[in-house]
Every structure is written in structure tokens, then in C-alpha cells.
């Protein structure tokens, strides 16, 4: 149980294009999902908190127009990196918090974005 | 503000040795959750354990054990008889139990990279 699926696992794109990353909770409902960014050999940096049916809450310094988040259902949140540039290249990882009251975040396998 | 410190950046052990990963935290909350996650080279974070601040009992799960000491604000993780498959980055994390904003965000440490040498 508690499986989070994240797609794609890897994407290479040209500068200026937009990339959409999906995060799905497969066997549980998640009213809250989180998006993180991880630089090599570093910890996870929270980018935003996504709540189903409402606007995402972005952390300080994260451009909401650059990183569009949609959480349209209890099992799906998407992150769209708009007009990607080489500095957006990174490892993006999502998590979903189970609504069973145990407050455990389960993570997806991550997406490695490379912008040429 | 919450803070999690994992002072050990990298540890190398020989297979079958025991190894302890340290985690020290800071929080103003009187109640909170502590977590350990494992991140193998594939990248996915794997949930290992959640401990709430009410419960100071140590926990054992197979070769894994956790020592929660509220008096020293530490939540250390020990792997007994380490194996090559234990090689990964291990993250300690902290979250509030009662979130006024409803977000229950995790505060992560910087992680400890464990290399188990055959």
C-alpha cells in the first residue's frame, strides 16, 4: 500500500519548452501533496504544498508562474515547469500525505529534468 | 522554527558491521513527529519509520533500530550487520503534529550517505 507514482522519470527538453510532471497516489487519497527539488548531494527543498481543489502554497523564492501546480483530484497533482531554462535542470520529487491520520508522506520516484 | 541536523555527511562501513546514523533536532513544539527515510541511488525516498514525541520507546524492525532520546533531542538510527543493499542516503525529518495551516510540512536534515563495502 501507499504507493506514489511519478512520471516521467526522466525528461530532456530544449530551453523555452514547458514540461509537465505527474504525481499520483495509487492506492490512497491524498488531500495534500508536496513538490520538492533536490540538487546533487543535497537535501530536499520544499517548493510548494498542493491542496486538492485549492491553490498551491509556494515557498519563499519559488516563482508560482514558473512552476504551475494543479491538484484537481484526490489522487493527482501536476507540476508544470513553464519556459524551462538550463538552470531549472534538477531532480524534482513529489510526495503525497495519507489521509489516515498518521501524517506520513509517501514519495514518488522523482523526475530528472535536463534542459538543454 | 524547526531544524534537523545530521552531522555525518558520509559514512563507510564494511559489510556486516553495525552503523549508527545520528539525528539531532530542534523544535518549539511540545508534540511532533520524527521520521527516517532512505534514498537509494534510484532516487525514490522510502519511508522507514515515524515516531511521535509521546512515545520514547525504542523500536526495532529486523536489522534496523531507532533510539529516541527526548532529553537530548536525538533520534538515532542503527543498522545491525550492514549489507551492501543498505547503501543509500538516509534522511531524518521532523513535522508538527497539529498544523494550524493543515500542511504538516517535513523539515529534512541534509542526509547521511552510507556506503557499505563488500
Largest sheet of chain B: 6 strands, mixed
Number of DSSP helices of chain A?
Answer: 0
In angstroms, what is the radius of gyration of chain A?
A: 13 Å
Mind summarizing the main beta sheet of chain A?
A: 7 strands, mixed
- Measured on Cα atoms, how large is the radius of gyration of chain B? 14 Å
- Strand proportion of chain B, as a percent range, falls in over 45%
Biggest interface, residues from each chain: A-B, 25 and 24 residues
Residue-averaged pLDDT of chain B: 92
**What sort of overall outline of chain B do the alpha carbons produce when their principal axes are compared?**
globular
Shape field of chain A? globular
Helix content of chain A: under 10%
Spell out the blueprint of helices and strands.
The complex is a heterodimer of chains A (116) and B (118).
Chain A (H helix, E strand, L loop, with lengths): L3 E4 L2 E4 L5 E7 L6 E7 L5 E8 L5 E2 L8 E7 L2 E6 L8 E8 L7 E3 L3 E5 L1
Parallel strand pairs in A: 2-11
Antiparallel strand pairs in A: 1-3, 3-8, 4-5, 4-9, 5-6, 7-8, 9-10, 9-11
Chain B lengths: L2 E3 L4 E5 L4 E3 L2 E3 L5 E8 L6 E7 L6 E3 L2 E6 L4 E6 L8 E9 L10 E2 L3 E6 L1
Parallel strand pairs in B: 2-12
Antiparallel strand pairs in B: 1-4, 3-9, 5-6, 5-10, 7-8, 8-9, 10-11, 10-12
